[in-house]
Structure formats: structure tokens, C-alpha cells
Amino acid sequence: MPSRADIEGLLIDTWWFGLTHRIDEQTFLDFARQRVAEGFNAIQMVVGIPPEVAPLHPEAASDVGVAWTLNGQINTGYLKMARKRVEQLNAIGLTVIVYGAWGMQIDWVGSDFMRRWWCALIEHLDDLNVIYCVTGEVDLWVATPRLLLPNRSTDDLHGSTAPARANGLRRKLQRLAGRAIRLSAKLFSPDAETRRRRRWGEVLQTLSESTQRPIIVHPSGHPGAYSHALIDHSDRLAAVTVQTGHSPASRNLHWRLPLQYLGTVSDRFINLEPWYEGILGNFWTDDQLFAYWCNMLAGACSFAYGAHGVWNLGDGRFLAHWGGQTLQQARALQTPRLLGQSHALWLRTLSYDPDATTDHEERDDVLLRISRSGKRGRLSFYPDVTACRVEDADEYYLPNSGETRSSPPATGAVIAWRSTGAGN
Predict the structure, then answer these.
(1) Rounded to an integer, what distance in angstroms lies between the CA atom of residue 34 and that of residue 177?
(2) pLDDT at residue 186 above 80?
(3) Is the pLDDT score of 62 beyond 90?
């Protein structure tokens, strides 16, 4: 049996639709090899019904059909196909974070079926290099769980599959609609959130009693949402997890949330869904590297990247209300390579150290510097070197170009590394 999978030191890519017919086997393997070459060592994907579609929607299906049906039938052919794909990813060095479902799906089929589904997943995957995520967005659509049924996608809910324009009004309306749904849950169905926590908690309890693999859960991006507040039996979780979501307003959450939660409910932290690169035409290389370094230097043990066009295996039409970027365009982005280089630097220098300490500087709600000091030395990130003095260091790394220098640049972002041997 392979060694026990761990949740530390992972650079994760996000392929929610990775087991659907939207990607053929050869493209799947070629893309996986590309990510390994770029420095990734994990993939998170749904083994089941993906988000934003109902089970009867054609894009929920794999080449051998859907994972399960609303009347409780489990597709054993799908489980065999899923095992083969996970084996293929493992063979080239990728840990697979298996998402068994999406939050509202438990209200479609009940906790008894979800426990049965997870037992089937464990039976087929538990001897492989996997980590289990009970569900994606555990607290999603608590007031309106049947919104997609029987065969809709979120494209239908938005009334158009035309590529969205990333304007402020649209984002504001989306946020207001989300708040209205959450408020209606509290006002008109006060027990819905408790029922959701309990149902997924029952699944978590069964899962934890059936495997030695690490188990996590994926929260929504709702304000204040984090793993341990959203599911019963949260002591079974291997890390505290969050989603900072896809709004510029979440910028400071990338370093504030790890500092807030680490040492409270867990000594491990992962942001499972930061800004997706290219979503609504936003969050390109600078933002992705900012998110990475803020999370890791605030104490995260691993980091999850996502790109629009990859998570949905986009063709410019499917789920295009989030933007028109395609898989082909997303695969051509340079950011994954630069993230891989940043991750290699983090692993070589500081790496995961639960006893390390973080300090930072900010001015007028803007981060000037964030640093983490551990047994090996001190690693500091400066988003803009013109905003404050850069400390002396053994080496300086320019994350946006991948260049290492002996002195800091005059402009831009820089990482400064000083080993313990340098008098730190």
C-alpha cells in the first residue's frame, strides 16, 4: 500500500470537471504532465457530480455516464474509470484531492445515500495516493438546494451563456443576490443551516471511521465561512480551510485568514479556492503570486491555484457567465510555471513549519511586507519594493519573472531569503 498521503507542501491545481467527457483521456494525461513540469504536485477534482450542473445535465456525465442518479443508482463503470484516472495522476507524481460531492447535493439525495457513495469511493480509491474532501462548498444554496434540478446549469440561471463582462455593477448584483439568499435561509428556514451541518457531519463521521486518509471540507466564499464552523464532527478534519473567492475585496483575506484561524481549530491551513485566474477577466499573474505568497507566509501548509477555463474545462460557452477564457487559453498562461518556481523556493527554504512565526507591515489597509521566520531562516514578501525598505538578505527572488538576484530590484515585487547562517 502506498505511503499515507499528506496535506503539507502541496501546490494544487483545480479540475472540477476533470472526470467528465469534457476532456478526453489523452488531453487529460498531456495536461497532467504539463502541470507536473510546471511544478504542481496535486490536483483537486470532483469524483461525482461536478458543481454548477444537475445530474441530468449533459455536462455532468463522463464517457461512461454520470456518477450517480437522483434515484440512488451508483454507476460502477464510472468508479472504475475514476480509479484509472487517479492511478494515472499518481503515476506521474500527483496527489489527488477527491471531492465526493457539492454542498447542496446532499439535500437532493439525503445523507444515507451520500454515506453509501463515499463508501463506494473508499472501496475504489483508498489504496491510492488520495486526500478526501467531504464536499465542495458545504454551505452553498442552503435556502434553495433544488435550484438546478432536474437538468439545469448555472448558465440557465443567469439566462445567457454569452461571455460575461467583468463590470462592477454585475459583481455587486451577484453579491446582493447571494446575501439575499443567505438572509432568506436565516429568516424563513432557521433550521436549514443546522440540518446541512448535521447531514454533512454524518457523512464526515462515516468517512473518518472508514479511512486513514486526511479529510478536509471546502467552504463557500460567504463572509466568515470556514471549515470547522460549517460541519458537525469537525474535529475529524485535517486542516482548517477557507475560500477567499473571486472579488478584489478579498485581497487582504489572503494573509489575514491564515493568521486568524491557525492555532485555534487547527495548526494546518489551506485556502482551497483563491482568485481564479481569468475569471470575469480578472486576477492575472501579479494577483496569483500575491495570493500564493501571502497565504504561505501567513502559515498555510499548501496552496490551491485555479484558472477559469481549467476548472470548467471551458470552450468559451460552457459556464461562460464566469468569463470566456477557454482551456486552451488557460493552458498557455505563464502563471502556473511562475507559481511552480515560487513553490520550489518555499520548499527549498522555509517549507512548512508549524512553529514558525509571521510578522507583517501594513499602511492604510495595504500590505507592505509579510515575513515568516523558522528553523531554516526568514522569508519575506514585498508586493512593492518602493513602499518600504527591503531588508538585507542572502538572495532576492523576483516572483513575476522567476529571476534570482543578489540585490533587490528598483520596482515591483520581491522575495527576500535570509538563512539562519546569516545571523538571523
Answers:
(1) 38
(2) no
(3) yes
**Cβ–Cβ under 8 Å, residues 313 and 13:** no
∠329-24-53 over CA atoms, to 5°?
Answer: 75
Distances (CA, A) of 5 to 166, 238, 270, 344: 39, 12, 15, 19
- Is residue 288 within 8 Å of 275, Cβ to Cβ? yes
Q: How confident is the model at residue 421 (pLDDT cuts 50, 70, 90)?
A: confident
Question: Using CA atoms, how far apart are residues 56 and 77, in angstroms rounded to an integer?
Answer: 17
- Cell match 489527488: residue? 96
- Euclidean distance between CA atoms 377 and 412, whole angstroms: 23
How far is CA 179 from its chain centroid?
22
Answer CATH for 11-348 from 1.20.1250.20, 3.20.20.80, 1.10.579.10, 3.40.50.880: 3.20.20.80
* Residue pointed to by grid coordinates 496535486: 42
- Whether the per-residue pLDDT at 304 is higher than 90: the answer is yes
Say if CB 104 and CB 110 are below 8 A apart: no
The ranges assigned to domains in the chain are 11-348, 357-422
* Euclidean distance between CA atoms 148 and 1, whole angstroms: 40
306-359 pLDDT per residue, tens? 999 999 999 999 999 999 999 999 999 999 999 999 999 999 999 999 999 999
What is the 3 state secondary structure string of 328-391? HHHHCCCHHHHHHHHHHHHHHCCCCCCCCEEEEEEECCEEEEEEEECCCEEEEEECCCCCCCCC
pTM over 0.85: yes
Q: What is the pLDDT of residues 231-247, one digit of tens each?
A: 999 999 999 999 999 99
Give CA–CA dist 197/107, Å, rounded. 11
Model pLDDT, residue 75: 98
Other CB atoms within a 10 A radius of the CB of residue 289 amount to 21
